[in-house]
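Quick board copy: two proteins, each given as sequence then tokens.
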Amino acid sequence: MLDVINKSMDLEDFDKEKLDKLLKEIMELDDRFKANGCNISSWYGNFEKNKFYDKLEKLNRGYKYKNILPKKYDAKYPSFLVWEIYTIVNTLPFKPNDTVLDIGGACSLFSYYLESKGINVVTIDINQALVDEANRVAKKLNLNYKAICIDAEDFVNSCQEKFDYITSVCVFEHIEEEKRKRIMKNLYKILKPNGKIALTFDYRNPSKFVGLNSPEDVKKQFCCSDRLQVMGNEEFFDNKKNYLVHGFFHWKFFIKYKIRSIKKGNFKKSQFFRVKFKNDYTFGSIFLQLK
């Protein structure tokens, strides 16, 4: 278990033996799915080729990116995603037959990985295509895995089931801030006694929409329920390292992408010509448990 678990990403966190085991399992899982004509989504949440998003994804990986997995796997599963999965599975005591709700994880490597360890997975997602594909795969491979197309807040407010764990890998930063807090305040309702939550998220992403730029932001948005308590270190640890660069600021930027980002309100018009030549953000993790 990591000594400090609520923290910004550090690719030096890995224990070699544990990492080697995880990488082997990821590659075996990917090979098994491909051999059966089944899809696992990329870290961008899609499984279809798209020239624009494929190029943007490469820029997003930042300057001086280093792969952990062999290149044929790294194309879909970069070192950042490996860190997220490693951090969660080496912090929470998952065991076979546990129940997990994975928010925003339909077709994802992480949710399929959990199922491969004998865990019963329910994943919710607002992307109908991903949900349909996830359920097709589950049926074909006889997985203990169910995907539901529903908004996270709607699911939390209507669900009658309780889970041992709730997880989410880089999804909450895509949810409007006030809605994030409402969801976090109510997640306790669908946790079993001793239930635990693990979230990873964009940290210091310069888009105005994200708004997770300090330990105070993390506390305000994710630790806002009086029915949940932080596991491990109470204050989020920011190691000040940056591994990714926002495509808006990359020197190989797309003009159309910049215009669209400004129209959405993520960036100001005055930032149109700004370029960054070093990485500007990272990922983070937070762990909570039912009081």
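And the next:
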Amino acid sequence: MSAITAPAPTGAPAPNENRDRPGMSRGRKLGLTLGGLWLAGLVFFIAVLGFKSHKAPTVASGVFTPTNEFKLDTWFAVGPVDFNKGVLYVIIAAAITLGVMFYVAGRLRQRPGRMQAAVEMFYGLTSGMARENLDDPMARKYFPLIATLFVFILVTNLIGYIPLPVNSIDKFTLFGAHLPSFQIFAADTNVAFPLILSLLVFVLFSWERFKHNHYNPIAALKSLMPSGLSGPIAPLIFVIEILSYFLRLISLTVRLWANLLAGHMLIAFMGGELGVLVGDPWVQWLLFPFGIAIYLFEAVLIAALQAFIFSVLTAIYLGDAVTTH
């Protein structure tokens, strides 16, 4: 006895036909929704306010300028030290760096977990910087410095993308109280911070070169010259080598400072400051997605990349100090 199945009505979908048909992913739905909101907001601002400039009084009078957020307004002084947001960020970065180091050291286990796997990846990265550019004694000696510079600069860069109420120049009023406004700020955007780190590295590799040449300053200067070079071109090459040697200090400083400063300025401008300056809310709304994109690019890539570059150049310069040309 066979079972008889009634045929499906004409035009009705076959079983599981809708289930097998690929639908729109959540990510695409979210993207289309946000894109629609952005476009609707742009139309709204243009329709309501038009293209006429609506500058705030502080902008029109020149009281507000984009450079205000990078100025270091002294909060109080302790002896010769002026305490400002730059000092605060350095203290926060140092505290987080020490906290992370002690936390990681206390959680190392014989059976590694995710934390230890991440630590071992970091160890492999920083030890590779030292081993590839320094001999074994120098690598053992300077690996802690290279690793610490990497972590400290990385932490300094990352906390620079967290908005904190530290802008005491442009304040806002809440229940009658004048409070510092929120902003993103990095200690690297003040040239003094990368300059101090670069001076530390410069002094160290200069000392290593001096020591490698038996504490003879003349021999240390001669070691900058390529071996076997003679003739009329030698004085010119000597001047170039001396200049390039001291330019290492400038390049270490400017590379870290300029990249972080430019990134923070781009985020601020695309995130709304350009619209504030021209007095058009629709410009703020138009550029806001680009501000978010630049923010993510800077926080995810540039923060780690600049820490890596500074650390690996430290290793390269230390290795070059004890290398005969």
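Board note added afterward: Residues 72-182+190-321 form one domain.
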